[in-house]
Amino acid sequence: MDIEPIATLELTRWTGPFDDATRAAAQDALESGKVLYFPKLPFLVGNSENSLLTDALSNGRAKNISRDPDGKIQGDAASPEDSARLSVMMGRFAEQARALVLTLFPGYADRIDQARTSYRPVEIAGRSYSPRTDDKRLHVDAFPSRPQRGRRILRVFSNIHPMGGARVWHVGEPFEAVAQKFAGKARRPLPLEPWLFDLLGITRGRRSDYDYLMLGLHDGAKLDGAYQSNAPQIEFAFPAGTTWMCFTDQAMHAALKGQFCLEQTFHLPIEALAHPERSPLRVLERMMGRELI
Ligand code: SIN
Ligand code: FE
Fold this sequence. Notes:
By secondary structure, the chain is an alpha+beta fold. The chain has a single domain, classed as Jelly Rolls (Sandwich), CATH 2.60.120. It has 7 helices and 11 strands. It has helices spanning 20-31, 80-104, 175-182, 193-200, 209-222, 225-230, 280-288; strands spanning 6-8, 35-38, 65-67, 73-74, 113-120, 152-159, 167-172, 233-238, 243-247, 253-257, 261-268. A hairpin with a 5-residue loop joins strand 3 and strand 4. It is globular, with a radius of gyration of 19 Å.
């Protein structure tokens, strides 16, 4: 691939301070759709939290255990003691991820929303899903029930594997190239469909044209076997004890292998970006020649 999709930053603290040059370079790379990789930034798991490093904590139905910003845990099968420990560990990760994002990107502070934290204790390799729900296939994030209406999805990941297992990703081509290939094939809504889905609670809020296009990119890429095999992509292994982040609605990604990962999601309106013109919304609007919200 001619564009290096990973930018490495040798930070050793979640809370800074970071100098201006580091922050500017990080923001430029992030908003270009690159993955920011922090090889020296581990999330530390306490001794009393070692009992949480087992896939038996997952309830088997949900892929991930999630924690709402108010501390409520979902998708776990943990004892009350472990459930409480889990909430504390995930809460600490949520705090550190927030500190990292806000010290690196102070310009986001006023507009950022902290969404759910997830814990992914189940090995990815060997799990089988339908192609559309299989995150082992390259995709940009877009969720059928959660319209974003142009809002960005920023995610911070830490690999906390206790025995050194890497988390292996594929990272693909720039968003413009993905949009060029799949936007034209996106399904258009039926009349009243967005309104009806919202009314029936199928979606949380009304899907915009932007959301239909993003779902089209997500599904189009995942369902295209030739694209999956032949598209420009690199394989990257994030070792245990490392952290990374990206706009997952922009960076083409797939998670192939790995166990024990923490993830924090943030939402951000494009007005908070230094380069709103690089956002998926603006790229798609330029391509379609009209407003999409
Ligand atoms: C994904 O966002 O597609 C999965 C990322 C991961 O669990 O490593
Ligand atoms: Fe994803």
